[in-house]
User: What shape does this take?
Amino acid sequence: MSRDTPPVSGETPPGPQGLPIIGNKLAFVRDPYGFMTRTARQYGDIAHWEDVSGQIYQLNHPEYIEHVLVQNNENYVKGDDFQNILEPITGNGILNSEGAVWRRNRHLIQPAFHPDRIRSYAEMMTDETEEMLASWADGETRLVHEDMMTVTLRIVARALFGVDIDEHVDTIASALEEFMEATENLPNLVLPPEIPTPSRRRIRRSRERLDSVVTEMIEKRRADPGEDDVISMLLDATDEGGNAMSTDQIRDEVVTLLLAGHETTALSLTLTTYVLSQHPSVEEDLVAELDDVLDGRTPTMADLDDLTYTERVVKESMRLYPPVPGIVREPVKPDIVGGYEIPAGATVRMHQWVVHRDPRWYDDPLAFEPDRWTDEFEQSLPKLAYFPFAAGPRRCIGERFAMLEARLLLATIYQQYHLELEPGTDLDLMATVTARPKNEIPMTVHRRSTE
Ligand code: HEM
Assistant: This one.
């Protein structure tokens, strides 16, 4: 680590004391954002606490985070804390797998995210958005997060699997939704995975529903191979021994991409509409740029270089409201971080939410200021002081896809509509794998005058 490396201390880092047995689990689950933020501000760059699953090390300095995710990444796996949550639905897909299986499948899927391929998705992304907007009526109240979840699900399915999932959209959306809700359930978080809680039974049912749809998608592609969609690529793939991938593994990759590829982008859009509704002057500047660059046209790939303020709005929104608020890793062998030894098998937590709001890197960190994202500012920022898509080999495979989608959708929506948050709506976010709003985000949509 380049940061002055203190001598290795034989002690554990400072941190909050918890209750016997469950440690700080309840405190974390009750107020995750408050807990992680207080822990960082009170105990410094590395803090230690315990919960039911064991020893937790919370890293709050960008260089420590870079050490774990990038420099020494080979010593880390995602670990049970993360994998047990996702396994029931995404199985052994690339978000969850490790070692040779992860490496091979990431490599196989990567071509679908080649920059040229990503660019070719732009028109379909705006077509889907236009279709959504055509169903909005001036003055009506929309549940924005639901709308964003539907449009991003349709987009990822068409882009990666070349299928129109019209007939299945409700089944997939409701199964994934039910699953994400169940991941928040307290008994699920504290009881061992083998205990069949009611929400675990719900997860099993959603998986069965998803399985039938996804298996049908795979069988259709097997019967009628596409040119370069991800399912056809996976069906074609063979290992060194010439063996094809099993249907189960293909299913896991498809469900992983459907889930990872729509929930997070939907969140980034929902949270951006929320934060814009609280900052009318930023919305004004955004609309001024859209009018200036697009003059009423639907945005295209070629416009993106000129939509610089739109990009800053997206970046700033993901700083203040990172759709993935924290990530976890587990060291395989003991590691030294910040002068402390982290034992093998401990949980290492790194929170975008905390680092993105650290006043050492961001002046007035709670203010929503897209203009802070100048080139000079970005160059001066420590590398991992901004990591909405993580970093290192397990960095988000869909980052370019997501950034394209977020800018195009935001531009398409705001040049046509002003979104007004229903008075009395609070933004209360969950904090497991993603930062989902606990309640609906109702917004009245006002069509902008085109004169
Ligand atoms: C704003 C949108 C998005 C955000 C904030 C985001 C964030 C992240 C983060 C933080 C990780 C690392 C998780 C970890 O290390 O535990 C990740 C991984 C991943 N993301 Fe995204 N993501 C977004 C959009 C997408 C999209 C659009 C796709 C696919 C179409 C996608 C697919 C994946 C996959 C497959 C992984 C696992 C990669 C691996 O482990 O090799 N994500 N994402």
Remarks:
- The longest helix spans residues 198-223.
- The radius of gyration is 22 Å.
- The mean pLDDT is 90.
- DSSP finds 19 helices and ten strands in the chain.
